[in-house]
Write a structure and sequence with these properties.
Distance between the termini: 6 Å
Number of domains: 1
CATH superfamily: Bira Bifunctional Protein, Domain 2
Strand order of the largest sheet: 1-2-6-10-9-8-7
CATH architecture: 2-Layer Sandwich
Strand content: 25-35%
Number of helices: 7
Number of strands: 10
Shape: globular
Radius of gyration: 17 Å
CATH topology: BirA Bifunctional Protein, domain 2
Structural class: alpha+beta
CATH class: Alpha Beta
Length: about 240
């Protein structure tokens, strides 16, 4: 069984704190949870073991009005400017839980794949079956600059990725679906390594073209949320 929790708009720090608390309080015998939320400001989150100052100009981000927060999961840096972010919590005794982290990643992303396919009516989508050849350290530290095994792919490019944390009571999966890339001039201003910006453009599939209107972004977010809810909550 699945339940929906929509906590609305909050800061990056509050959204991440809430996900960490939800994992801490997860009942191993309880229902799985789809957590939907939104950002009070343009934001960046980074994996638990990432040092963001190595890869981002933090003062420039502050001047751009972009807030940052550490995630309770691993993984790389994610820009929450033009994506749909969501979280999934699966208890240890749920049928979708595995002791193998990759199995858990595939389990959730198969549902994400189905939701995006249903929205786009696009058949040329699948999960990436193998890990690609390793790239430079900077690219490996940005979620949308390097596809990894079981990421959601369309036309050979990554549209959705995630990071997980597994505890004895279950696992937390924090996902992001790329609706559009952040503005190129913004990325070039705040990302230290220009090759990372190039990799993001090369490896990311976006649902909206450059020059999209804000209304288009909000409409696509809304539609994605509806399809995500339908797929996850139908169990």
């Amino acid at each position: 069984m699945w339940k929906l929790l929509d906590t609305g708009v909050a800061s990056a720090e509050e959204n991440m704190r809430l996900d960490a608390q939800l994992l801490e309080d997860l009942d191993p015998k309880g229902a799985a949870l789809l957590h939907l939320y939104a950002w009070a400001q343009p934001s960046v989150t980074y994996g638990y073991f990432i040092t963001p100052e190595k890869f981002l100009h933090m003062q420039r981000m502050q001047r751009e009005g972009v807030f940052s927060a550490k995630r309770p999961t691993g993984g790389g840096i994610v820009f929450h400017v033009s994506d749909l972010a969501f979280s999934v919590l699966v208890p240890a005794q749920h049928s979708g839980f595995s002791e193998n982290t990759l199995d858990n990643y595939r389990y959730v992303n198969e549902k994400v794949l189905k939701a995006v396919k249903n929205l786009l009516q696009e058949n040329s989508m699948d999960l990436l079956p193998i890990d690609p050849i390793a790239t430079g350290e900077s690219c490996k530290s940005f979620c949308m600059a390097k596809p990894t095994i079981f990421d959601v792919m369309i036309q050979g490019k990554k549209i959705a990725g995630a990071a997980q944390r597994k505890r004895k009571q279950g696992f937390l999966h924090q996902g992001s679906i790329s609706i559009a890339l952040p503005d190129l001039s913004f990325l070039e201003n705040v990302v230290r390594d220009p090759s990372t910006v190039e990799a993001m453009q090369l490896h990311t599939h976006t649902l909206l073209p450059r020059g999209y209107a804000k209304q288009q972004l909000e409409e696509m977010r809304y539609q994605l949320r509806q399809h995500i809810q339908k797929v996850f909550l139908q169990e």
